[in-house]
Design goal:
This protein has helices at residues 5-31, 37-61, 65-93, 101-104, 113-117, 137-157; strands spanning 131-132, 135-136. The chain is an all-alpha fold.
Length: 166
């Protein structure tokens, strides 16, 4: 397993990212929970991780271990940034600090915006739409991103023991 840890890490990052996106889209399209702007920002790392993780996997399989490790390192960094956004979002939901005025403040109405917004529910970043065991989706996302960061950094820093891994 240690000989192929870079490949395994790449596939785990791809699978974890795809599952996180599937869950987000499930909650949005099936359950009906519209994402706020911070929720959408948290999806970016996963959208990037799926194709880049596949590239890292292909590079590792093709013997380009250094390329795979660099990509895994970048994916780990992306997940750390995503974790930071998720922690910030969870803190906004718990009212530990102020969030962006674009999704927590009172909307600014100009022109016929009020008419356009009739019947539309604008999701707010400071209201957790769903919680499990006390954690909101942002809290769970922080844990998922942290786990994927550990996987990616482990794959990026572990050397292969086979001869072709220079």
């Amino acid at each position: 397993m240690l000989q192929r840890l870079d490949e395994t890490a790449a596939l785990l990052v791809v699978a974890g990212s795809a599952l996180a996106l599937a869950a987000a889209w499930y909650f949005q399209l099936v359950v009906g929970l519209a994402p706020c702007p911070l929720c959408l920002d948290q999806r970016i790392a996963y959208y990037v991780a799926v194709p880049l993780g596949l590239v890292a996997y292909g590079a590792a399989r093709g013997g380009r271990v250094r390329v795979a490790q660099v990509i895994l390192g970048l994916l780990g960094l992306a997940m750390v940034i995503n974790m930071g956004i998720a922690i910030f979002h969870a803190g906004v939901e718990w009212r530990l600090w102020e969030g962006p005025t674009t999704c927590t403040g009172a909307p600014v109405m100009t022109g016929n915006v009020l008419g356009a917004l009739k019947g539309a529910r604008v999701p707010r970043c400071d209201e957790a739409a769903w919680r499990l065991f006390g954690l909101s989706m942002a809290g769970w996302n922080a844990l998922i991103a942290a786990g994927l960061a550990v996987v990616a950094f482990t794959g990026a820093t572990t050397r292969r023991k086979d001869a072709g891994a220079a």
